[in-house]
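fyi for ur records
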Amino acid sequence: MYEIFEQLLQKYGVSAYKVAKESGVTQSTLSDWKRGRSTPKTENMKKLADYFGVSIDYLMTGKDEPEKKETTLTPKDERDIAKILEQTKEQLTSQEGLLFDGDPASPEAIESILSAMEIGMAMAKKKNKERYTPKKYIKD
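which gave:
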């Protein structure tokens, strides 16, 4: 059973100390569990399962793999992206002599650039959310 706990630690890049601190399960409980001296009580198993967003069954058996929630952008994220895109659009349209393939940049070319930037920025924000707050994006 502890092997599954260790796999979850590696998967989410956290230490047993951090899990103990944030879940409320004592380090001595985890240490005893690791050494095979005991198995955490149901209450502590629930805390650990909740921390990783898995079921108690998964924590004990390794079956019933957790599903990820879809990462979504908040309204603030969308406003931030829109603000950056607007600033970029102003810079692109105010420049004299902006050329693409030797021709002056058309409004359509500028819109294409901005659309690609918007998609890339949204993907980057979602990836960062998953990477830096992984617990939040695990299905309950």
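The CA atoms of residues 68 and 138 lie 4 Å apart. thats all i got for now
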